[in-house]
Design goal:
The chain is of the alpha+beta class and 169 residues long. The chain is built from 7 helices and 7 strands, in the order H-E-H-E-E-H-H-E-E-E-H-H-E-H.
């Protein structure tokens, strides 16, 4: 068993999602999400703000056959695209001990249907901590995320405003 197989076996079955956004500031996205009652974990990176999540829903065999995104992750991507009025990219990584893993990516517009994109091209442009999260080297607990569910309204407003000020500079 090589090093990757040992790593996958040690963490067990794992499905995670990452929504990549064009928002420059993690604070601004977290503040906006909290003010809009979108409960998620936001990560600020050098390549822009991203949302990370562990997927808990069952795998839909029909969706897997058609190449559709998992509904739980797709709904998160759609809500973020509507929230920021911009296109987002959803990347889903599945690691299963003894069977290997897979990674898929889709682009979501504000009102457009999802479009599959090459995950290799997406991963090549990612911040290293997002890449490490997707390939299973680190978990959500190892990332410096902002949990929007725990933000009071006043703090969310302040984070959003501060994130916008940093972007203008």
């Amino acid at each position: 068993m090589d090093e990757f197989d040992e790593l996958v076996a040690s963490i067990g079955p794992r499905r995670v999602a990452c929504v990549l956004t064009p928002v420059a500031s993690g604070e601004a996205l977290a503040g906006l999400a909290a003010l809009s009652d979108v409960r998620t974990c936001v990560l600020g990176t050098a390549t822009g703000a991203a949302v990370v999540a562990s997927l808990t829903g069952e795998v839909d065999p029909f969706a897997a056959l058609t190449g559709a995104a998992p509904e739980e992750a797709a709904e998160l991507a759609r809500s973020l695209a509507r929230l920021i009025h911009a296109e987002v990219v959803l990347v889903v990584s599945t690691l299963t001990p003894g069977e290997g893993g897979s990674m898929e990516a889709w682009r979501f517009g504000e009102s457009e249907p999802e479009q599959a994109v090459a995950p290799g091209l997406v991963v090549a442009a990612l911040d290293s901590q997002v890449e490490d999260f997707l390939i299973g080297e680190i978990g959500i607990d190892d990332l410096d995320v902002i949990d929007t569910a725990s933000l009071p309204r006043w703090k969310a407003t302040r984070m959003f405003a501060r994130g916008l000020k940093r972007r203008k500079k």
